[in-house]
Amino acid sequence: MFLTANARGVITIAVGDGGNELGFGNHLAEARVLLGESKQIACVTPAKYLVACGVSNWGGYALAALVAWLNRSRLACSKEMLTEVLTSIVAAGAVDGVSGRRTPSVDGLPLTIELEMFTQLTNFLPPYIKAAGEADW
Question: What is the pTM of this model?
Answer without folding.
Answer: 0.80
